[in-house]
Design brief:
The structure holds 2 protein chains of 2 kinds. By secondary structure, chain A is α+β, with helices and mostly antiparallel strands. Helices cover 32% and strands 14% of the residues of chain A. In chain A, the strands form 3 sheets. A 5-stranded mixed beta sheet of chain A has the order 2-1-5-3-4. A two-stranded antiparallel ribbon of chain A has the order 6-7. In chain A, helix 2 packs across helix 6, helix 6 packs antiparallel against helix 7 and helix 6 packs across helix 9. The chains are: A alpha+beta, B mainly alpha.
Chain lengths: 238, 115
Amino acid sequence: MVLKVFRWSPGSRERLQKYWVKALQGMTVLDALVELQRNSDATLAFRYACRVGMCGSCAMVVNGRERWACRTLLSNLDRGPVTVRPLYQFPLIRDLVVDMAPIKNKMLEMKAVFVPGRRAMDGDGFALIGSRTRERRAIDAAIECIGCGMCVSACTMVSHDPRFPGPAALNRVFTLQRDSRDGAHADRSQAVLAEDVLTRCHGQANCTAVCPMEISPTDSILALRRRAVLRLFGIGPR
Amino acid sequence: MSARRAEPVRDRKMLTRRMGSAEAWRDTKVGMWAWLLQRVAAIGLVAVIAAHLKNPFARPVQAALLALVLFHGLLGVRAILLDFGLPARWHRLLFLLALLVGVAAFAAIWRWRWY
């Protein structure tokens, strides 16, 4: 099987380098890259950690779609050349390795950081929210985000408007806005009302389509938008 | 208090989806088609309405106008339903429904011939 892998390092020109790998049964894209690095080209740079579809650090664009390399079987891809590129919308470091800092920066920009409020503590220590409560169920899926960046890469609005915070940051904002222990709802509400934030999402759901954790940042953003509209009419929480 | 702004990343090398390449379109998702087609229909409507005002009785223009209005409007209804809280996982189904209802409505209205 032929792999066309994106190669670039600072100071050099970008190119797609062709490699040939023997596709063994059950081989993933990550296995193929490791094989290439060990036996063909030790200079090939890519990132991975857990190798079993948990950490999200091997997120990349395979055949035009954002995927975790460790979860992508070569046998499930077309027989033609498989193209492997780094995630879109992230600054490149080298080859398939990107700088994930924009996710954190956008979260800080949107104040998507937990701030203990009055309800953060109860008599016994840190207040707990029961797993079966309505409050918890509302954010149950959304809190599973591990920040792999695939949603940001797939979002066309992120590429259109660099000031748009993107699905990961807004999903995090949603979880915090629905957390009764948090004390910064008002500040965050102000941050998301900026013109390049909630209104910029066009609901294409590309983020939802690629999320390996089956989170729907689209739903999170639409929920934030509904709250913002209700607040305009003076109803609903922050 | 103003929102904290991150370091600009635009001056650093970054890949973006090149819409001129076949690979970028290969994995265009349903939601994006719905968004794109609705906007294309909007542009089409502007042209067709102008043609319709010029000659309100031209049958092809009437057909185009009806088709575009249905298409654009029903995709708009889809967006409204999602905005109102229908789960985003239904967006593909709603796209399909908008297309089917559009085709059925077109056929029904066109056969009706109200004048």
